[in-house]
Amino acid sequence: MKKAAYISVTILEILCLAGAWAVQYFTRRKMGMARYVVYKNRGWEARYPMELLANGAALLMAVLAAALLLYFLRQRRNLPKTAWLMNAGMTALTSAYGGFTWMNSAQEVRSYYFISAILGAVSLIQIVKTWIGMMVCRHSGHGIG
User: Fold this and answer.
1) Residue from 124, 126, 123, 119 nearest 17 by CA
2) Cα–Cα distance between 134 and 142 in angstroms, integer?
3) How far apart are CA 92 and CA 69, in angstroms?
C-alpha cells in the first residue's frame, strides 16, 4: 500500500512537471494560449499582490525544505538509503522552484504565475512525501516498500 501511494504521488509530480512544460510551450507557440495567460496575469495582478505571494511561497518552501534537511542530517545514521534519494529530490525540486521564482518575472516569462504555482505544488508534494517517508523509515527501520 505504501509503495503504491509513493509511486502514485511520484507519477503525479511528473505529470505536473509535464504540465508546466506544456503551459510554457503552448504560451510561446499558440496565440490563444498567450492571450489567455496575459488576461489571467493582468486579472491576478489587479486583485492580488502576486510578486509578494510568489516570493513568499518560495521562501516558505525553502524554509520547510531546509528544516527537513536539517532533521535528515541529524537522523541520517538511523535512516536507509531511500531517505538520501528523497532528500536529494526534495532539494533539487525546491531549488528549481526557488530559482525559477526568484530569477524570473511575469514580464520575462508570460506563463510565470502558472509555472510558479505548478512548481510550488510539486515542491510541496515532494516535501510532504519526504517528510512522511522519513517518518515511516524511522519508525519501521525499513524503506518505503
Assistant:
1) 119
2) 10
3) 12
Low-confidence ranges of the chain (pLDDT < 50): none
DSSP 106: T
Q: Rounded to an integer, what distance in angstroms lies between the CA atom of residue 21 and that of residue 129? A: 22
| Residue with grid cell 506563463, as numbered in its chain | 111
Kindly list the domain boundaries of the chain, sorted by start residue: 2-140
Q: Are 26 and 95 in contact (CB under 8 A)?
A: no
How many whole angstroms separate alpha carbon 124 and alpha carbon 97?
10
What string of H, E and C letters represents the secondary structure of 45-90? HHHCCHHHHHHHHHHHHHHHHHHHHHHHHHHHHHCCHHHHHHHHHH
Beta carbons of 24 and 111 less than 8 angstroms apart: yes
Under 8 Å between Cβ of 58 and 134: no
**112-131 residue pLDDT tens:** 999 999 999 999 999 999 89
Q: What is the pLDDT of residues 74-90, one digit of tens each?
A: 887 877 788 888 889 99
Give the CA angle between residues 65, 48, 58 to the nearest 5°: 10
